[in-house]
Amino acid sequence: MTNEEPQSSLLLDEQLCFALYAAQRAVTAAYRPILDELGLTYPQYLVLLVLWERGETTVKELAEALRLDYGTVSPLLKRLEAAGLVRRERSARDERSVLVACTARAEELKERATGVPGALLESTGLDLAAVARLREELWQLTEKARPHL
After folding, report:
1. Which among 88, 97, 87, 86 has a CA at the least distance from the CA of 45?
2. Which domain holds residue 138?
């Protein structure tokens, strides 16, 4: 071990967490003009992606899919409901459970949203193979970094 190794490990640009943070902010910023055309924020887009994929789902399942806590998902859903994009209702089978589903307006928005992934690729200059590799590495990192209880 050299004398420089311990010091270099504290350099900002050598931190994995900072590289991920900077990349996340840059990608979210790249999405912003694309999603502005749809009238959505990035977190709202993620909620709709889950609902478009799964259909009606519980708030709990939605939060799990997005890897968010209930306290973060609930205000998102309130804003989407106010915008007329989702509806929430208590489950008839389990009063403790709240079901969330897209409205017809959200289903119409889905058609326009199909261009979002391609627009992001174009804005970043990445090709499909590079995106697939990067996504796989990030999911592997997520799995390895996740606390195992």
Report:
1. 86
2. 14-144
